[in-house]
UniProtKB/TrEMBL annotation:
It is found in: Cell membrane. Residues 250-551 form the Sulfatase N-terminal domain. InterPro entries: Alkaline_phosphatase_core_sf (IPR017850), LtaS-like (IPR012160), OpgB/LTA_synthase_biosynth (IPR050448), Sulfatase_N (IPR000917). Keywords: Cell membrane, Manganese, Membrane, Metal-binding, Transmembrane, Transmembrane helix. This is Lipoteichoic acid synthase.
Length: 717
């Protein structure tokens, strides 16, 4: 023991203690926090040793300082930064089931304005473990339990420590390659890199790949678009003759159902008294309406960009990026050929986005300009008060109500989207707005999900009522869609009993099926509605919509296909490279029968060949999308008739006054619903039961634990 104490008083001894502490913490975190799919003793051994090499390399930086004080401070600094990075990944993984990319770190300023309580909701009581070792090391030095070794430390010893680190990493890499050949060359799952080479290596490797991507964009030229054009031509799906142009010249209204999953359709929550209550009765009625084309096998395809990725998919028929958010990385600088640009050029549509949150969130205020969106109504357009707000923006009922003053001034036909936020993780809602019971699982996030989903349903119903009263309804096509999952994979086993599933038998197949989201196209007066069972996803939305509006898309670069076409491709690619088809669901190396959910333990050569073919198609689609975005390839190709877009031409200030001025200038030729209503506002036609607009409710302080305010309403984890 005395020898250990004596060794700790040396610079190398304190260095060794830091390495051991960080190694132990990292390994425990791997096991407790991340689902890395470790199988067998070899992978367990690799997981055990993989933190050592990069930890030694990074900590050895401190050994190069001549000054004893600087050396110890440098070591503590590196230790603290690595600990914060590790803990940040723990929190990030709890929500996204993924690791933080360098692009996400660099773009955090574009999303930080909307974060806060949701991060707090991810914290667990045991999380102090991930930072207490930093405090422990500081106390050791501050209390003189360990004194700074004043003796000079030879650089050759510091260099030797670094060499030891790289040698250990080489051995780690060799062992990893023997267990997983071409680990880095064929990586499609970040879990693999972390499992085999560690979280520190993943961060460094991801940074290298991001820098490489920037180089790719700079070196791209016109020839790089040829492969994309060939793919689009070969995969083009002709429009269905009966559906093409069925909604021509109608207004388009997209209703973004935040975090709304397909399992909520027709779902009834059983209360503690045994009563069954419909979570979303109005949305269900639209889903089954004779004027609605609904899709029961429609999937989201988002990556780390979440809601912004869903917008990229719906607006451009392109995926988000494999790391970080496309809006934050390329939204401001890239050339796009979005729905707004196509409809504006082809059909003289005016476009508008409505979002009761800060415009800079996900860099929307800049990206929308690049996409040629005429108007963007963000937080500057709404009355933000404490009573009206949730963490991610304005409560849905108030948001819709306050949007009408802008909607009624839009020239028709218009293309619009309303991005709701009330059904956003962690699903808080003040008591005055709660009129639906919570579920009774041990997870409060799941419990409150049904409450906020019901509130969203009520808000959608109020908006529909306005559309009918204002005469916008009959001349519109209304698309309701879920942007992404609401309950993350890490919580699905807790949700399973509510879905009649056994948590013990919950599988990757079940996780894949949970990525279904609602997609319904409501076209009043058509009378040909039905529930479509073909497989599709968000990337298919734009070609489907354009064909319904009578727009030919043969020359457009769209990676999805028309859902109604006989040639529609039913293979659904997920951002991580996994996929679902009507026959097979593939998660990593596991193949499931899509119809039965059965894991194919010994698939035939025929099955393997078909899966390989589908995997290759998915890989091609994803890589082409990545090339389009990372190399900005659309700057090299413009379809006939598509007008060029200059972001500098768009200004999202004083928009209401500008719309009024334009309409007044047109006189009797003005087409807005305001002008068609004899220049009378339709705002009073909007009816809502939002308590904030009736009386001043007693609000729950959402920054405090719910139990301290109302034991019957639990709104945080």
């Amino acid at each position: 023991m005395n020898n250990i104490k004596k060794y700790l008083q040396t610079r190398l001894g304190f260095f060794s203690l830091a390495v051991i502490l960080f190694w132990i913490k990292t390994y425990i975190g791997y096991q407790a926090e991340f689902s890395l799919g470790v199988e067998g003793i070899i992978q367990q051994f690799i997981l055990l040793i993989n933190p050592i090499a990069t930890t030694v390399i990074l900590f050895s930086i401190a050994l190069y300082f001549k000054s004893s004080k600087k050396a110890y401070i440098a070591l503590l600094f590196v230790y603290a930064v690595m600990s914060i990075l590790f803990f940040s990944n723990v929190l990030y993984y709890r929500e996204f089931s993924d690791f933080i990319s360098v692009s996400t770190i660099l773009g955090v300023g574009n999303v930080a304005g909307g974060l806060g309580a949701s991060t707090f909701a991810l914290l667990h009581a045991t999380d102090f473990f991930y930072l207490i070792d930093v405090v422990f090391l500081i106390i050791l030095l501050a209390s003189k339990k360990v004194t700074m070794d004043q003796r000079p430390f030879k650089k050759r010893y510091a260099f030797a420590a670094t060499i030891v680190g790289f040698t250990l990493f080489a051995a780690n890499l060799a062992l990893a390659e023997s267990n997983r050949p071409q680990l880095l060359a064929r990586t499609f799952d970040r879990n693999y890199i972390v499992k085999y080479l560690g979280l520190n290596f993943f961060t460094a490797y991801d940074g290298y790949k991001a820098a490489q991507a920037n180089q790719v964009k700079a070196s791209a030229d016109e020839s790089d678009i040829e492969g994309v054009l060939t793919y689009v031509d070969e995969h083009f799906a002709e429009a269905d003759a009966e559906m093409f142009g069925i909604a021509e010249d109608r207004n388009v209204i997209f209703l973004h159902l935040e975090s709304f999953q397909q399992f909520l359709i027709d779902y009834e929550l059983e209360t503690e008294t045994g009563e069954s209550l419909e979570v979303a009765p109005f949305i269900n009625s639209i889903y089954h309406d004779e004027d609605t084309q609904s899709f029961s096998n429609f999937f989201h395809q988002i990556g780390q960009g979440k809601t912004a990725d869903s917008e990229m998919l719906l607006e451009n028929s392109l995926f988000g990026l494999p790391q970080g958010g496309a809006f934050t990385q390329v939204g401001e600088s890239n050339t796009f050929q979005s729905a707004s640009q196509i409809l504006g050029s082809e059909k003289d549509y005016t476009s508008a986005m409505f979002h009761g949150n800060v415009g800079s969130f996900w860099n929307r205020d800049n990206t929308y300009k690049s996409m040629g969106i005429d108007y963007f109504f963000d937080d500057e357009s709404y009355s933000f008060t404490e009573e009206n707000m949730l963490e991610y923006g304005m409560k849905d009922k108030i948001f819709f109500k306050e949007s009408i003053q802008y909607l009624e001034q839009l020239p028709q036909p218009f293309y619009s989207k309303f991005i709701t936020v009330s059904n956003h993780f962690p699903y808080p809602l003040d008591e005055a707005n709660v009129d639906f019971p919570t579920a009774t699982t041990e997870d409060n996030t799941i419990n409150n999900y049904f409450v906020t989903a019901h509130y969203l349903d009520q808000a959608i119903e109020e908006f529909f009522s306005y559309l009918k009263e204002s005469d916008l309804y009959d001349n519109s096509i209304i698309v309701l869609y879920g942007d992404h999952y609401g309950i993350s994979n890490s919580r699905n086993e807790s949700l399973a009993p509510l879905l009649g599933k056994d948590p013990e038998t919950w599988s990757s197949y079940d996780n894949a099926m949970m990525q279904k989201v609602p997609y319904m196209i409501h076209m009043p007066g058509t009378g040909n509605g039905k529930i479509n069972t073909q497989y599709g996803a968000q990337i298919d939305s734009l070609p489907t919509l354009l064909h319904l509006l009578g727009v030919e898309t043969k020359e457009n670069i769209l990676l999805g296909t028309d859902l109604f076409s006989e040639d529609h491709d039913e293979t659904v690619a997920f951002r991580d490279g996994n996929f679902v088809s009507p026959k097979y669901t593939v998660e990593g190396s596991s193949i499931y029968d899509t119809e039965t959910g059965e894991l194919l333990l010994d698939p035939s050569e025929e099955v393997l060949a078909e899966v390989d073919r589908l995997r290759e198609n998915v890989s091609t689609q994803l890589s082409l999308s990545d090339s389009i975005l990372t190399s900005d390839l659309l700057r090299f190709y413009t379809p006939d008739g598509l007008a060029a877009t200059d972001p500098a031409d768009y200004d999202y200030r004083d928009q209401l006054e500008r719309m009024k001025t334009v309409n007044e200038g047109l006189g009797t030729a003005a087409t807005s619903i305001f002008n068609q209503n004899d220049n009378q506002s339709t705002v009073d036609l909007y009816k809502t039961n939002a308590p904030e607009l009736l009386d001043t409710p007693e609000m729950v302080d959402e920054t405090q634990p719910a139990e301290t305010e109302n034991p019957d309403i639990k709104i945080t984890e």
